[in-house]
Each structure stands twice: as structure tokens, then as C-alpha cells.
Amino acid sequence: MEKGSNGGFDPKKEIFKPLDVSESLERSLGLYGLIAISLSATLGSTLFVIPALGADTLAEQGGTGAGLWLAFIVAGVVVLPSALSKAELGTAMPSSGGSYVYIRQTYGAWMGMISGLGLWASFGLKSAFALIGFSAYIYAIQEPLGFEFTETMSKVIAIFLLSLIVMVNIMGVKSIKKIQIPIVGISVLFILSLTVLAAGDPSFEWGKPIDAQAFSQDGLFSRNGMTNLGTASAFVFLSFAGVTKIAAVAGEIKSPSENLPRSMIWTLVLATAIYVLVSYFLFGMLEPSELGIGTDKPDKAPIHTFAVEVGGTNLGLLAAAVAIISMAGMALSGVLGSSRFIFAMSRDNLIPQVFEELNPKYETPHYAIIITGAAMAVAILTIPVGDVAKLASGFKIMIFMLINSTVIVLRWLPDGETWYTPSFKSPMFPAMQFFGVISGLILLLLMGISALIGASAAVGIGTMIYLSYGRKRAEESLTPWSIIRSRMLNKEQYEVKKLWLVFNACAHPQNSSHLTLKEFTKALGVLEPPAESSRVESLFNQIDADGDGKIDIEEFIQSMSAESTS
Fold first, then answer.
1. Residues 549 and 417 both lie in one domain
2. Same domain, residue pair 408 and 518
3. How far apart are CA 11 and CA 557, in angstroms?
4. Is 234 a member of any domain?
């Protein structure tokens, strides 16, 4: 084949195929362990802090902000397509790295670098935020305990907890599972107990959270009401970031084709129900003004305030203890998921390979865990983590949009690309995925300039590191997106890529440089079903000019291209 006859496509390039690291990391996570880790990652840093902050966002254009429960439902519906898409992708590529692996596989090394670093940073920052977020609960109980708590003490405790969390992560997911299940169980039971106590309290007002004024002075269906609801939904969207985080450890999941989609759906349903219950009963019991709604200091320990209202000081102390343990548990899950992005990028040569080394005793990526913990420590000590995490939230929404688009690209691959065989497929394709992309874009715009700045910064830093390090070392590859793009823009190049895919899919893995007659028959069956055996053998002998019983890639593409145009 003459150089340039294929429109610039080199058929000798190997397509990037999913890397299965299941032989490296032990598969020890079952369904209940997955749900426990996912719920901890989802609820830990947000359930105990976000209700007052979200209600304050809802009340920006007037109203009481008591309708926050509906914003959680809207956000949960928007997350659903991403959860289904990620579950599908996870069963097709059950390896550690989650979203990074899927985007890297579909769009190439550059987008993989951007998504991997961005996810690592945003998950780490959110986990760091959880570790210092418990300080609000300690401040809230200073008076009953009779001591004064300083900012320095808060950071010392946060670093101490972080050190323990890093050590537990190095010891492996079995240790994490044993810790997470009781933490999640206690947290959920305690929160449900508060709602039961509130429901039985004579002062509880059932109608207040659904009153029109709860959304805006002009009502829910006014322009301000709908805008406020959308903005609040975008804000609390961060509360669901942990729903799909478990895909980052897909390489350590038992029966991932079954347990991965089940755990995501159950986590989304349970988390949405808990958020709705808490926000509904919180604002049915308390006046928004009691939580600082509409002021420059919304309550950062709303569950403590709620507990004191329904059960007194002692219950408030218990609420603070549960909140602190739960947020520490979220950070435990955060280090687990975040470190796997570093592990996966190192495995793909985008960052130094030292981060893919496994601990000889516990078989965990200890260097990836240590660097994640070190970065979180720097954030705790030097950066206003709450502000940075808010900026990073825009990038998370963009990742969810990319995940939905990834399923669209992979489902639309031409015949012959046989490696994408998910055991679970998202229902209502592609409408579900298009809804996820469009709704994510709307939320991103509603979040305003800060989210766009955060996303842009992540793209810029990821690009800089890729150009300076990753591009020289990462294997150049033919990606599904490049194939779909050729299908839309360059028909000639698309036909060549399609032939390459068929050749690659039908060649024997140990002798992938050529096709035998049997393999050629399989390839022709993909291209021209049904193919008569006599015609197949005649065509094979015609292409095999040297008579060695084998056809290489260039012979195959050149002859089949001529066949299709004749």
C-alpha cells in the first residue's frame, strides 16, 4: 500500500485495548461491601454539611429555601444516566481506574490524562474537605463539653486521621470494607431515627417544605422558582459524586458484571431517599432562619442543630460524633478511589511507573496511596479546600457528560470491534445518554463562572503534563472516537480503519500479524455475511500471492479496499 493512500491512517498502529489488571489486584469486594463504600463516599462529606448550604443557594432569589428536597430528586435523576453508563462501561472494562480508563480507552491518551488527573484532584480535595469539615461539628459542641477548639487543633486532628486512613488503605480493601459497613450502618440508622423523632414532634410542619414559598417568593413554577431549583440541583449534584466512584476499583470487585451495576443503582436510590428525608424533615422542623439561610453564615453543622431540636443537648453530642466518624469514613473511601486513578495512569505510562508498584504484603498500590495522602495533607494545611472543591465540581459534571458520550461512541463502533462486550447494557440507549449530556450541560451553565474556571484549569494542567511527559511515553493508538470521527468526516479513512478492526478482531492473539484461511473466512463473514466457502477460498488464494497460507494486514486492507470499490 502506498503511503498516504489511506488518508493518513497507519494500519500498523495497534488499537488501545482495555488492560485487565485483575491478576494484579485481588477481587475481594462483594455487593454489600460495594454499597457500603459507595454510600460512605456519597453521604460522608455532604449529608452532614450540605443541607443548609444547598437551601441557601435555593433561597438566593427569595423564598425560604425549604424545598431543598426537590433539588436532591432532580440531581438524582440527572445522575441516573451516568450511573447506568458507568455500570455498562465497568462490566466491559472491569479494571481499576474507573472513568479514567473508559475515557482513555475511547478518546485517547490526552483526554485520559486530563480526566485522570482531574478526577484524582477533585476526589482528593473532596476527601480533604471531609476531614476538615468535621471541625464545624466540634465547634458546635464546644460549650457543652467545656473546651475551646482552635483552627490549629482542627488541622492537627485532620492530619492524624489522614495518616491512619493512608495506612488502612495500604492494608487493602478488605480492611476498608470491615470499617465502612458498620460506619455506614450507624450513620444511616441515626439519620433515620432523627426523621422519626421529627415526624412525631407536635411542632413539625408537614406542609412547609412543599409550600410554594419554599422555592421562591413567586412559587416553584415561576421563572425565579425554576432557576433557583436548577441552581440548587447543580450545587447538590456534588452530593452524588460518590455514587459512581466504586468503578475506580472495578479490578477488585467480585463478579463485576453483576455487582457493579447493582451497587450503583442501589447506592443512587438509597442516597437520594436519605437526602430527601433529611432535607424534608429538617426544614419541616426548623425555620430556615435558625440554620442561617439567607445570611452570610449558613449553618455548617445542620444535623447537630436538627438533633438538638428533636432530642436535646445529649442527642446533639451524639450527632456530632456520628458526623465526625462518617466524614472520616468518606475520606477513607476517597483515598481508595483517588489513588486508583494514579495507579491506572502509571500503568499506561502517562506518569512515572513507580506508582503502579504493588505492596508485596498487601498487594495494594502503596506509592499511589501515599502520594494521594501527601497531596491531601498539603491541601488541608495550605488551601481553602471548600472553595477549591467547589471549583472542581464543574469538572465532575463534565466527566459525567463524557462518560455518557463514551457509551454512545462505543455502541456505534463498526462491526469487527469485538472487544466491547458489556454484560450489562444501559436501557433506553441512546436517549438515556443524550439526556445525561444535555442535563449535565444545563447544570454546568447554572453553576456559573466558578465551575467553568475549575474545568478549564483542570484541562490546562492535564494538557501541560501530557505534552511535557505523557506524550513521549504513552503508546499512540487508534481509538474508537477516531474511528467514529472518520466515519463522519473521512469515508475513505473510515473504510480502512474498519478493515483494520476486522483484521485485528479475527487474527489469533498469538499470531496477530496475519490471517490464516480459517481466520480470513471469519473476517469475510463479518464484512459480507453470508460468504460462500468457495468464493472465500478463491479470494484468499488470490490475495496470498506468495502462497505461504497467510495474509498480512497490508495485503488484507489493500485487496479488500479494491474489492469494495470494484
1. no
2. no
3. 8
4. yes
Same domain, 406 and 486: no
**Which residue segment(s) compose the domain that 543 sits in?**
480-565
As a whole number of angstroms, the distance between CA 73 and CA 82 comes to 15
Measured distance CA(177)–CA(262) in Å, rounded: 17
**Within-domain flag for 460:** no
Would 453 be classed as within a structural domain?
A: no
- In the predicted model, what is the mean pLDDT of residues 69-76? 93
Q: Does 147 reside within a domain?
A: yes
Q: 126, 327 in Cβ contact below 8 A?
A: no
Locus of grid cell 455502541: 411
Q: What is the pLDDT of residues 418-436, one digit of tens each?
A: 578 888 899 999 999 999 9
* Calpha distance 185→180 (Å, rounded): 8
Which domain CATH number covers 309? 1.20.1740.10
Nearest partner of 97 among 247, 298, 236, judged by Cα: 247
Are 361 and 494 part of one and the same domain?
no
**Residue 196: CB partners within 8 Å, gap ≥ 6?**
none
Closest CA to 139 of 297, 301, 292: 301
> What confidence category does residue 360 fall into, taking pLDDT thresholds of 50, 70 and 90?
confident
pTM: 0.79
The three three-digit cell numbers of residue 332, written as one number: 477513607
User: Is the pLDDT at 83 greater than 60, yes or no?
Assistant: yes
DSSP one-letter string for 127-166? HHHHHHHTHHHHHHTHHHHT----HHHHHHHHHHHHHHHH
Instruction: Please state, in angstroms and rounded to a whole number, the distance separating the CA atoms of residues 444 and 395.
Output: 9
549: left (phi over 0), alpha (psi -120 to 50) or beta: left
Q: What type of residue sits at position 548?
A: D
Report how far residue 140's alpha carbon sits from residue 562's, in angstroms, rounded to the nearest whole number. 77
Nearest of 224, 272, 207, 292 to residue 58 by alpha carbon: 224
Burial class (CB in 10 A: 0-12, 13-18, 19+), 370: middle
377: its cell numbers? 495533607
CATH number of the domain that residue 501 is part of: 1.10.238.10
Query: Containing H/E element for 472?
Result: helix 471-473
Alpha-carbon distance of 458 to 481, in angstroms, equals 21
CA atoms within 13 A on the CB side of 89: 34
Average pLDDT (512-517) is 82
User: Could you read off the pLDDT of 275-305 as tens digits, one per residue?
Assistant: 999 999 999 999 888 888 877 777 878 999 9
DSSP bridge partners of 552? 514
Q: What share of the chain is helix, strand, coil (3-state, %, to 5)?
A: 70, 0, 25
* The C-alpha cell that represents 7 in the structure block: 488518508
- Report the alpha-carbon angle 393-394-395, nearest 5: 90
Instruction: Assign 76 a pLDDT band (cuts: 50, 70, 90).
Output: very high
115 lies in the same domain as 198: yes
Q: Are residues 184 and 133 in the same domain?
A: yes
Quick one: cell of 290? Answer: 435558625
What's the domain count of the chain? 2
Cell digits for 112?
Answer: 485520559
